[in-house]
């Protein structure tokens, strides 16, 4: 059997940290004399008690995790944080059921951005700040998981990014702790820069701080029901577009750049592919708006850039209801949902590097068909791709399609219409935020869905955020028998 004491110990540390963070929205509410500060205080105490109990009852153990313990820890930590993160929503004067509260919390910590809340413009500052903090914590959390844990677990081709297996000259820093510290510094600096840019562009300080946290985390929670569309400000739209792209690039490469390797970002093939995909999609969508909707060129490129980047990075902000842009736009945005950003970033989806691996593999397979006796090797970032990575990526694609289909079928069984089922499943497993259609589209909300659908979508968010294998392996009996 697996020794779960180190897992419980680390979960306890994370919950204690979370209880401290809950004090921030409590102070924000207390400053404006909103009674919800008590909800945050109670939630903080309960979370502190649970975390402290886990630490005290499991202390004294050397925290050296085996691979099986790391699998359990990854899923258990995200699930427990989502559960305790739901407490402020439950206790606050929002009249939210625990199902709605957990959905909101899970959407926040996985940086999905789907919401069941309405009336955000009149919501107390503490709740708005807590939603943003959840996404900000989830953003940096998934970067650390993607860089330090998933490559070790050999999940979905992520082993291609293992630091210890690369050449010494390619190592960012000698120890994983230093890498995490470097990433945290870059993450905070980008967040501060984004907040400053928003404030300079016309947002209030409070709006700028909230939107900066959810932009860098590519989460998409806003302080208004109209999202960024509330401001109707071209400068704000371009600031958001730029920082969403920055949030979707590999943070390890930022650290390399800061430490002197200036060309790290520009020479990375994954970054190049991502920027080409984004640029092509923006251009095509802008031309579509100009030719079919008679939108002026400047406005077409502004709307196209913002919404394309928002969807492909999984942020989920909206400035307009792109569901009204026509059938081609709907199909294009549906496909963009799945692509995602770069591995090692805050973005979600399938990730660009997996498409690169599949493309290289398919290219080699075609060459072998034409020259059966030739020797052809697929490459990624000018390095040979191992058979292990190729198999892992193909396995990920297979599971992704199966999981997407199962989520859509389950939503159909609960009585939802076809477009809501398909786009809801897509937006959950790809952690995008808004779906398509009148119900859960950019102008809609997830509140109207039945409770069963919210639980299904919450599970889908966790599944997609943790790269499928990490969660699904826990349901294999042989995993627990060792």
Write structural notes for this entry.
The chain is mainly α. Helix content is 65%, strand content 1%. It has 22 helices and 2 strands. It has helices at 5-21, 23-31, 37-57, 67-85, 87-91, 98-109, 125-153, 176-201, 205-216, 234-247, 251-258, 264-267, 269-292, 297-312, 327-339, 352-370, 387-413, 418-429, 437-440, 451-465, 469-472, 477-481, and strands at residues 379-380, 383-384. The protein has a two-stranded antiparallel sheet with strand order 1-2. Strand 1 (379-380) and strand 2 (383-384) form a beta hairpin. Helix 1 (5-21) packs antiparallel against helix 3 (37-57) and helix 2 packs antiparallel against helix 3. The longest helix has 29 residues, at 125-153. The radius of gyration is 22 Å and the shape is globular.
List keywords for this structure.
22 helices, 482 residues, mainly alpha
Strand order of the largest sheet: 1-2
Count of DSSP helices?
22
Q: What is the rounded Rg?
A: 22 Å
- Overall pLDDT level: 90
| Uncertain spans | 164-174
Helix content: 55-70%
The number of E-state strands comes to 2
H/E element sequence: HHHHHHHHHHHHHHHHEEHHHHHH
Biggest sheet features:
2 strands, antiparallel
Q: Based on helices, strands and strand pairing, what is the structural class?
A: mainly alpha
Beta-strand portion reads under 5%
Distance between the termini: 7 Å
Shape estimate:
globular
């Amino acid at each position: 059997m697996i020794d779960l004491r180190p897992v419980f110990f680390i979960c306890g540390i994370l919950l204690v940290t979370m209880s401290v963070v809950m004090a921030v929205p409590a102070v924000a509410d207390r400053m404006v004399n909103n009674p919800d500060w008590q909800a945050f205080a109670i939630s903080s105490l309960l979370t502190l008690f649970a975390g402290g109990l886990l630490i005290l009852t499991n202390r004294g153990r050397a925290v050296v995790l085996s691979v099986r313990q790391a699998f359990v820890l990854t899923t258990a930590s995200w699930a427990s944080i989502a559960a305790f993160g739901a407490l402020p929503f439950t206790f606050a004067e929002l009249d939210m059921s625990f199902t709605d509260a957990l959905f909101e919390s899970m959407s926040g910590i996985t940086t999905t951005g789907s919401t069941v809340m309405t009336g955000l413009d009149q919501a107390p500052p503490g709740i708005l700040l807590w939603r943003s903090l959840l996404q900000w914590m989830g953003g940096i959390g998934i970067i650390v998981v993607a860089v330090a844990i998933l490559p070790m677990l050999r999940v979905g081709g992520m082993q291609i990014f293992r630091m210890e297996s690369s050449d010494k000259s390619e190592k960012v820093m000698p120890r994983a702790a230093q890498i995490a510290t470097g990433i945290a510094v870059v993450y905070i600096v980008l967040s501060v820069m984004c907040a400053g840019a928003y404030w300079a562009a016309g947002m209030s300080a409070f709006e700028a701080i909230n939107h900066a946290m959810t932009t860098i985390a590519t989460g998409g929670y806003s302080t208004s029901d109209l999202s960024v569309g509330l401001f109707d400000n071209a400068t704000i739209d371009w600031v958001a577009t730029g920082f969403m792209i920055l949030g979707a690039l590999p943070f390890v490469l930022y650290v390399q750049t800061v430490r002197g390797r200036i060309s790290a970002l520009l020479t990375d093939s994954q970054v190049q592919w991502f920027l080409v995909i984004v640029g092509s999609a923006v251009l095509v969508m802008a031309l579509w708006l100009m030719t079919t909707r008679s939108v002026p060129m400047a406005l077409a490129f502004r709307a196209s850039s913002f919404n394309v980047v928002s969807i492909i990075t999984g942020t989920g902000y909206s400035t307009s209801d792109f569901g009204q842009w026509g059938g081609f736009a709907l199909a294009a945005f549906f496909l963009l949902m799945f692509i995602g950003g770069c591995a090692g970033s805050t973005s979600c989806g399938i990730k660009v590097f997996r498409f690169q691996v599949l493309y290289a593999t398919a290219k080699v397979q075609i060459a072998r068909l034409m020259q059966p006796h030739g020797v052809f090797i697929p490459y990624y970032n000018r390095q040979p791709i191992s058979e292990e990575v190729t198999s892992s990526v193909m396995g990920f694609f297979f599971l992704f399609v199966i999981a997407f289909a199962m989520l859509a079928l389950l939503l159909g069984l609960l009585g939802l219409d076809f477009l809501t089922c398909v786009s809801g499943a897509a937006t959950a497993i790809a952690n995008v935020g808004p779906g398509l259609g009148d119900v859960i589209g950019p102008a809609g909300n997830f509140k109207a869905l039945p409770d069963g659908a919210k639980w299904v979508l919450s599970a889908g968010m966790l599944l997609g955020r943790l790269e499928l294998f990490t969660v699904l392996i826990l349901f294999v009996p042989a995993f627990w028998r060792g």
